[in-house]
User: Fold this.
Amino acid sequence: MAVGDKKAFVSGIGFLAFGIFTLAISSRYPLGTARVMGPGYFPIMLSSVLIAISIPIVLRSLRNVHGGFGTIAIVPVVLVSAGCVAFMLLLRPAGLIIALVAAMMISALATRGRNWIVTVPVVAAIAIACGLVFVKGLGQPLPLLGYWFGG
Amino acid sequence: MSSLLDNLMLGFQTSLSLSNIGFCFVGCLLGTLIGVLPGLGPAATIAMLLPITFTLDPSAALIMLAGIYYGAQYGGSTTAILINLPGEATSVVTAIDGYQMARNGFAGKALAAAAIGSFVAGSIATLAIAAFGPLLSAVSLSFGPAEYCALMALGLVVSSVLAQGPLLRAFAMVIVGMLIGTVGIDVTSGYPRFSFGITELSDGLNIVAVAMGLFGLAEIMRNLGDFQRRELMATKLKGLFPSREDLRAITAPVLRGSFIGTVIGVLPGGGALLSSFMAYAAEKRFAKDPSRFGKGAIEGVAAPEAANNAGAQTSFIPLLTLGIPSTAIMALMAGAMIIQGIRPGPGIVHEQPQLFWGLVTSMWVGNLILLVLNLPLVGLWARLTTVKYDYLSLGIIAFCCIGVYTINGLPSDLLVMVVFGALGVIFIELECELTPLILGIILGPMFEEYLRRAMLLSQGDPSVFVTRPISAVLLMMCVIAILLVTLPNFRKIRKEALQEE
Assistant:
């Protein structure tokens, strides 16, 4: 079976799956009545509507013809995510400056053909500037250096 | 009338204090600075800069945030005009004629027209808020839960009708958003929903973290890998100040745009967006020679800019009078208010007149500062748009991390941001609009609360929504909005107007 509009098809299936998932979970919550709604009432209502909407999206996608996918570059998504997670993990132990440097350097790996001779000092400058502005200037309760360094 | 003047005086006492002018100035400056960067619209800018206002007192914080908002919006128009890259949907229209003007060598004039249009519109909208805000907050006292529900429904419908992608998917995104909004402990029953035993989820998702993921991080994830080097505007910015003929040419369009923006902006669900499209369409109709549009007509820049600025300002009205944030940006404002210990809603005008009027008048001050700031600095902003994305994006990542973490000091908020960043990338690829999603997340919980109350009051009888007149009218407007987009004629206009270049 050829799908005419791949984007619509994938999003429709995604909505359908999400709707079924939330319906399955929320149907275990107390339903209540229309007068005194329980915690399950609203999510069940929403899930049903979502399922109802997703069906025509899928059906239409089969006959409408539309351009295919662009490409999602996975690498930057993964690296930027990893950078932010590194920030989260390093903030307390290593401190703000190092956490920021880690987040930026990991994300920077995503750019092909990056000029590292410029990138390294820029990253250092941004990290130090952020430290000065947010911690010294605005008094945010973040450690400049973490407990690894006795901060 | 005299009370209006008294109120404005009270407001100016707050907004014209030396320190508040300072905060407004810094807000406008920072807002423009970040907003002018390619790919970052007002929502991302505000989310990123939110933490720097935490330590200020409430009125200073709100004044600064409002300044950031206008600054970001103006910055967005600048990128739209100079590199044809609208930071947010509201400046899509500006890009059409603005970029053509820039290519013809009239970038300076286009930017000036946008700045002047915004200023005039801002002044008119400020007066309108001052005049009608208190009135509306009085009317809102007669709003029961049914009316609140209907109003939110209208907002959600309008936001999906105005979304750029396919309509059904936009509706689906609203529902997905509302479902995501139910995550956490149900306030009425204390029952945890969709929290899967994770403590961090039981408080619900942090909306600022979600917004930063969707509007900030997602954009970077999409572009960092292989950012196509943008063609720089080689043309020098010459002839910045519009000639007398130009001014004459834009006077009427600016006034019309301001009027449209002021009125439409009050509508929940992206009033600023709708108003800029309507203003553009109106100008095309009024023009003697409509064929100039799309080829660099100065009216095509001035009118939508005026409209979207006026709309941006009057979109404060639902928040300040009803406590309903009608756009993602207003939700961030509401978040900032709550952090400052202020509950947005009808009470603000009476309980904290100084804050309310200070904010209203600071909008005007902000617009004035923007005009003064932007006309001379246009050259600098233009150069900023050429800053290498390779380095810029790293700074944005740093800001996002710090920003999200400092809201509550919760590491889990960073994970929320990352997850929604990745989701944002997928949604954008699938042509599923983000604005309806975030509005669903924001309005969902409020909608549920009012729905439950309305049904409780009506003894479970849903007809209450159509028997109460205000509610019936609002729901009727929903139906009309849906009917309009399904009509073939309007569908064509929507497609033309909302399609990205």
